[in-house]
Design a protein that fits this description.
Layout (H helix, E strand, L loop, with lengths): L1 E5 L3 E5 L4 E5 L9 E4 L2 E4 L1 H7 L6 E3 L3 E9 L4 E8 L11 E8 L6 H12 L3 E4 L27 E3 L2 E6 L2 E6 L1 H30 L10 H24 L3 E5 L4 E5 L6 E6 L5 E11 L8 E13 L5 E15 L8 E2 L5 E2 L1 H13 L3 E5 L1
Parallel strand pairs: 7-10, 17-22
Antiparallel strand pairs: 1-2, 2-3, 3-4, 4-5, 5-6, 7-8, 8-9, 11-12, 12-13, 13-14, 14-15, 15-16, 17-18, 18-19, 19-21, 20-22
Helix pairs in contact: 3-4
Length: 364
């Protein structure tokens, strides 16, 4: 087994199937932390120091990722795990530290951290120093989201609004969309009985039959269609979703409009990239000077989250934007606002920047 010495007289010993943290050199005694493919076992003293469950065990489902990051406060590299929000309830923090190294003694820190992530089959995140502090010799640069010049908040895209509030970004439909649905529901609710009454009356009248004879049946069909539209509008209101990007807890939540019920949520670290897919509904000829053309797009805004797959955040029906002439998006490509620029793409850029993931564009 490989052996790595950390600060505070700690030692890590590991191979492809096991990972141990010892208080001391590990020649004798039990490890204070033992990691296996199923999870992490720890001593009562470690549980007390880290405010972990007294059961002495965390499953891999309770661990989101393994991270190695530089902290300027103590000029040291810290190895730890980020717990899921559910596992972190009552602790006050999702971060659980395991070991640390002085900046000048961190050469073996990253291999030990990556070995732990590989053992659990969890993501590994390297958090480099913000300034020119020493980095582990084996550290490789992490991919980052593209540098985009984004429009200031709030941003409106079709009937959707993206804005900032205390501790969160919020993506939701505007009040005009809900008022429009309610108005159509009321109109169709009044019109459907009228068609039904007139059609039934025409069929049951003792006077001369209506000509042509199929007209009452057409009226009944229209009444049924209007009734179906009323239920469709009602269902759209019931299923309306608000996207909340929680900056404090680093969670993306899909809630009902009032925020009282969470329909789905996932942590930042689950996200791999933001995908903005579109269909061009219509376009104008390109301007000769700028080579840009005005376009009207139907846009789907997704987050790809690994095993969870694509998570739809918003469907925007008619978004006005500009596109560079001759640029094709048949294959997924990084978001470049010089090639395709619309409010929906700025919203996707804001979300990608907050999640620290790339943003891509694709034509359906």
């Amino acid at each position: 087994m490989l052996s790595v010495t950390a600060a505070d007289d700690l030692t890590i010993r590991y191979d492809s199937a096991r990972w141990y943290l010892y208080n001391g050199r590990g020649e004798s005694g039990l490890p204070i932390v033992s990691a296996a493919p199923g999870g992490m076992t720890y001593t009562p003293a470690f549980a007390t120091a880290r405010r972990l469950p007294e059961s002495g065990f965390l499953t891999t489902d309770q661990i989101a990722l393994v991270a190695l990051g530089y902290a300027a406060e103590d000029s040291a590299w810290h190895l730890g795990v980020l717990l899921t929000p559910e596992a972190a309830l009552g602790r006050g923090s999702r971060w659980c530290g395991l070991a640390r190294w002085r900046a000048d003694a961190a050469a073996a820190a990253e291999p030990a951290a990556r070995a732990l992530a590989a053992l659990w089959e969890k993501p590994f995140k390297l958090i480099p120093p913000e300034s020119a502090a020493p980095a582990p010799p084996s550290a490789a640069p992490e991919p980052s989201a593209p540098d985009l010049l984004l429009a200031p908040l709030p941003i409106r895209a079709s009937e959707w609004f993206f804005s900032a509030r205390e501790g969160a970004y919020v993506l939701r439909r505007g009040k005009e969309w809900r008022r429009g649905l309610l108005a159509r529901m009321l109109f169709f609710s009044l019109l459907a009985p009228l068609f039904a009454v007139l059609s039934i009356g025409a069929l049951s009248t003792p006077f001369a039959p209506v000509s042509p004879a199929w007209l009452p049946y057409a009226g009944l069909g229209i009444a049924a269609l209007l009734t179906g539209l009323v239920f469709w509008q009602w269902r759209a209101l019931r299923q309306e979703t608000c996207v909340v990007i929680d900056l404090r807890n680093q969670l993306v939540r899909l809630t009902n409009p009032s925020g009282s019920r969470v329909r789905f949520q996932f942590p930042y670290e689950s996200a791999e990239y933001v995908l903005i897919s579109h269909v061009v509904n219509r376009r104008k000829p390109a301007d000769r000077a700028s080579r840009l053309q005005k376009v009207w797009l139907e846009v789907w805004l997704h987050i790809y989250a690994g095993r969870r797959g694509f998570i739809l955040l918003a469907h925007m029906s008619d978004v006005e934007g500009r596109a560079a002439e001759g640029v094709a998006f048949h294959q997924k490509r990084p978001l470049h606002l010089g090639e395709l620029d619309s409010p929906a793409h700025h919203i996707g850029g804001w979300i990608a920047r907050e999640l620290d993931v790339p943003a891509y564009v694709e034509e359906r």
